[in-house]
Amino acid sequence: PLYHEHVPISLFQRTLLTVGSAAIAIGNPYRHDMVAVLGETTGYFALKRIRDRMKADSVGRQILSDRPRINTRTVNLEELRGLPDGTFGREYVNWLDRNNVTPDSRAPVKFIDDEELA
Fold first, then answer.
1. Which of 22, 24, 39, 55 has the smallest count of CB within 10 Å of its CB?
2. What are phi and psi of 68, to 5 degrees?
3. Under a CB-based contact definition with an 8 Å cutoff, are residues 64 and 55 in contact?
4. CA distances from 104 to 67, 68, 72, 74, 101 (A)
5. What is the per-residue pLDDT across 10-33, written as a single tens digit (0 to 9) for each?
6. Which CA distances in Å does 2 have to 32, 39, 99?
7. How many alpha carbons fall within 13 Å on the CB side of residue 48?
8. Other CB atoms within 10 A of residue 62 CB
9. Left, alpha or beta for 78 (phi > 0: left; psi -120 to 50: alpha)?
């Protein structure tokens, strides 16, 4: 494995996971687990472009270096709810509330074969 939660898979397995997760996610877009698997099995080039753009920016490089984790231990959601409408923090917590998720809802990344992109 390339990182703690990494699950190495073959091209055939990746194809099956892609098709299966896409079918389930289309049928039920609230299956965030399947949406995440679909993103992991198909998103390599998009993630690489995002990473490369971050490396070209000083703030992006700092984020990549620090690797901050956003979860309920590191972010005070009640404090975000107290921010003015239109701020990043308030819009983030509004999105979480609308979608009935928390920063902890997303399962660890497993199927991305590049530790830096995971």
1. 55
2. -65, 145
3. yes
4. 16, 14, 7, 11, 8
5. 999 999 999 999 999 999 998 999
6. 24, 18, 32
7. 7
8. 11
9. alpha
Distance (Å, whole) CA 88 – CA 94: 10
Rounded alpha-carbon distances, angstroms, from residue 12 to 2, 30, 57, 97, 114: 19, 26, 37, 37, 18
Tell me what pLDDT residue 35 has.
95
Alpha-carbon Rg for the chain in angstroms:
16
Average pLDDT over residues 65-91: 96
Greatest CA separation for the chain: 48
Question: What is the CA 19 to chain-centroid distance, rounded?
Answer: 19
Rounded CA separation 5/24 (Å): 23
Q: Which residue has the tokens 């979860």?
A: 71
